[in-house]
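Need tokens for this chain, all 105 residues.
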Amino acid sequence: MKKNFFVLLFLMIVLSLYAQSYRAYLQVTYFPIPRTVSIIVGDSVIIPKDSKGQPLQFKTSVAVLNWLSKKGWHIEPINMISQQNHTYMMSRENTTDKEINAMFR
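Here are the structure tokens for all 105 residues:
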């Protein structure tokens, strides 16, 4: 009986550890004229750069979304498109601010 109790207790602890997941959100804005992207995370704005320190340039907003999708980000159903830019909300499971900053800098 004690053995079953400890097995059940162990399973409950393991399940509770996995249940504490959270989502990180960011706002992505694509500017078609200079073909650049700005990413807003919390209160900071990040402009992704290449290895030479130049801002990354994308031909279309779909290229931006594909690039972020390869990094594990998922588009949320909220998006705003104006004549000047395209803005999307994206999310990723279990991501810390430190990981986000390392991803785009």
